[in-house]
Amino acid sequence: MTAQAMLTETPRAVLGRLRTGERLYATTTETATILRYDRRTIIDGINAGQIPAIRVGTSWRVPVSWITGRPGIPGADGGGGNGLAA
User: Fold this and answer.
1) What is the distance between the alpha carbons of residues 64 and 43, in angstroms, rounded to a whole number?
2) What is the pTM of this model?
3) Distance (Å, whole) CA 14 – CA 9
4) Contact 49, 63 (CB under 8 A)
5) Do the beta carbons of residue 9 and residue 41 sit within 8 Å?
6) What is the Cα–Cα distance from 22 to 44, expressed in whole angstroms?
7) Which residue ranges form the domains of the chain, and what is each CATH number?
């Protein structure tokens, strides 16, 4: 899937695709779409240690288990909010 196509997906669609594919890690673009943040904000959170991630080459990958554990994520348990700790 192209980056442009990912930008037009709903957070629920991206999360569903990640769960269906049994993937362990999501790209920063996928993470940003699900959490409804800008990709740069996700990268800043990774660099600040607020978001767990692994480095794959020059890219970051965020554990899907961390994403689905956030409150306010479509299809995940939890309350409202955007998913990042205050």
Assistant:
1) 16
2) 0.69
3) 6
4) no
5) no
6) 26
7) 11-68 (1.10.10)
